[in-house]
Amino acid sequence: MDSRGRPAEGAPRPDTRGTRPLVVGVLGGIASGKSLVARLLAGPAGWVVAADALAHEVLDTPAVRERVRALFGPEAVTPDGCVDRAVLARAVFAPDRGPALRAALECWTHPLVRDRIIERLSAASAGGVPRVVLDVPLLLERDAEHGLVGRCDALVFVDTHADERERRARRERGWPEGEVARREAAQMPLDEKRRRAHHVIENNHSHADLERAALRVSERFMHP
């Protein structure tokens, strides 16, 4: 459904979960507000499983940190022993060696992140958590590797205008103009992500509007 409660293309799956949590995957463009929407959808009783946070944990494990240092150079690790994600981002999105470096980094980190996501889904089931929201960039693009889409009872697309996402990325992340479009060029088109979603939440107005839209999705789908 969109922000006014209308169904998006695609139909929600029947509720066959039994006692396991309802699992929701959040889709959308860069800087669209997916993490905020994930927290709103999870609510106080649910969990958000954020791949970026898990990737931080993985990058700071000794084995991965040393592989990063060897491939990206000593400047990729700060004096206090943490991986400098800004250095990695500049390297993997560089036009020359970027694709090869990104592939190597993902080969090390993605399986570890995937395992941690699955561990949290299992813990949620064991703990009686009612909802788990997956905030996983490239959820659709990497599904052949992690199989998480098949675990989702619903996919929610966060629809935010391109110019607004550009402003947010420049203001909140310090990205140069055009960086959002450049990075998204390597991803699945947003129209396809929206088509694959069961629900659409618009995030172009106030925080209060976003909260109401998330609540409508929760009431209409997550509590059948």
If you had to describe this structure to a student in words, what would you say it looks like?
The protein is of the alpha/beta class and 224 residues long. It contains ten helices and five strands; from the N terminus they run E-H-E-H-H-H-H-E-H-E-H-H-H-E-H. The protein has helices spanning 34-42, 51-59, 62-72, 85-92, 98-127, 143-146, 162-172, 179-184, 190-196, 207-222; strands at 22-28, 47-50, 131-135, 154-159, 199-202. It has a five-stranded parallel beta sheet with strand order 2-3-1-4-5, with helices on both faces. 33% of the residues are buried.
User: How many domain units?
Assistant: 2
Low-confidence parts lasting 5 or more residues at pLDDT below 50?
A: 1-16
Specify the structural class: alpha/beta
Q: Which quaternary structure do these chains form? A: single chain
CA(first)-CA(last) distance: 15 Å
CATH class of the largest domain: Alpha Beta
In short:
With 224 residues, the chain is of the alpha/beta class.
Please specify the SSE layout and strand pairing.
Layout: E1 22-28, H1 34-42, E2 47-50, H2 51-59, H3 62-72, H4 85-92, H5 98-127, E3 131-135, H6 143-146, E4 154-159, H7 162-172, H8 179-184, H9 190-196, E5 199-202, H10 207-222
Parallel strand pairs: 1-3, 1-4, 2-3, 4-5
Helix pairs in contact: 2-5, 3-5
Key attributes of the depicted protein:
disordered N terminus, Rossmann fold, alpha/beta, about 220 residues, about 50% helix, globular, 5-stranded parallel beta sheet, single chain
